[in-house]
Design a protein that fits this description.
With 64 residues, this protein is an alpha+beta fold. The protein has one domain. Helix content is 27%, strand content 23%. The chain contains three helices and four strands; from the N terminus they run βααβββα. The strands form two sheets. A two-stranded antiparallel sheet has the order 1-2. Strand 3 and strand 4 form a beta hairpin.
């Protein structure tokens, strides 16, 4: 998943108020981008769009 933006001042107020008091849930305030990959017409998983693998950050995908 890729977080597209943080919370602005109004969203923070809505979060602090809570869903039962005129506010909103965190999962409705944050926006994410995801990709679903397919191999041979079978869904293989959800992943975030991005660039090349950084071994120091992402780890070695061949090991995982």
């Amino acid at each position: 998943m890729l977080l597209t933006s943080g919370l602005d001042e109004e969203a923070v107020k809505a979060l602090r108020a809570g869903a039962g008091h005129g506010g909103d849930h965190l999962h409705r305030l944050l926006k994410f981008v995801t990709l679903r990959t397919e191999k041979a017409h079978a869904r293989s998983g959800i992943q975030a769009p991005g660039g090349p693998v950084e071994l120091s950050v992402d780890g070695d995908p061949a090991v995982e």
